[in-house]
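Hey, can you fold this?
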Amino acid sequence: MVTFSGLYFDPSVLIKIRYEIPYRDIFYDLDGTLTGLGPKTWATPYWKHNEQPGCKVDLDVYDGLLCDSTVQVRRIAFYKYVPDIFFIMDLRILKIDDSIVGSMDNATKSAYYKNTSSYSIVPFRPKLDPTNGWAMPFVTGHKYKLHWRYGLDFTEMRIDLSPHWKTDDNDLYIVHNFTDVRA
């Protein structure tokens, strides 16, 4: 997370942000001079799971999402997984707030879960921070379903919160699939 304040953009500037791989940046705008949305606002790369109330997509000028001061954005990293079958596997993230899936009947919910266009598809990152894992920005206060490409279960996984996470931040709910295999 990078904090900004007191920025000035020449009127000739048409693109204010251009993100690069791995697309996990979080920009916190203290005074609104970056986002134009007022103080305590956010800019982050576009990920489908972060299309939340209080956020809007602006790919032309900001190359991602802009979120107002009602929102918090924090990073979560997933790594040190067992078994090693997760190596180079995509992470899939789906929004599953009660306001989205709570009133769906089973058939509609099943179709929503199977619709790959509803997911953020996060590529595996072999680089540092963390090594061999996935690190992503999340809009807090929401519920997300996470699974890996083939829906496999892990027996161990390290999940780290950003050091910027505060005790009074909104909660984040993460749901994982679990398969209990018995002989």
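Oh, and this one too while you're at it.
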Amino acid sequence: MRIYDVSRGHSQDIYHTKRMQRVQCVKYSLDAQFLYSGSDDGNVRLWKANASKKLGVMNPRENAQAEYNTALRNRYKHLPEIRKVDRARRIPVSIKKAQEKKKIILDSRKRKEENVRTNNKGFGPPRVPLRQKMYLAEEE
């Protein structure tokens, strides 16, 4: 299960378990601290919305440390090292393999469209970014 931010193209969080099947519904709790998911296997799972956040009562020193860490992360988020750590997600092997296959397919489609465009002396189909394409049906 991937959670996306509407304004960004990359997933914000990834939630998974080994026995998890198709997810049918997802809902945030009213205070937005938890996420509920229902799947085909008949289970309802409860996830923390911010996986690294500590639950329960925190003493003032822990609160100050958490706020300081968040401020540091926000201040230096433009640096490549911090960005890499911040965007790192552990993805299950099956999903990783599917991503690699999809990337190969999309790269070959892009290469084919570019070849058609260059060999038709500029009269080929115009370039359209993948996010702007709307597929109703695919013909081959």
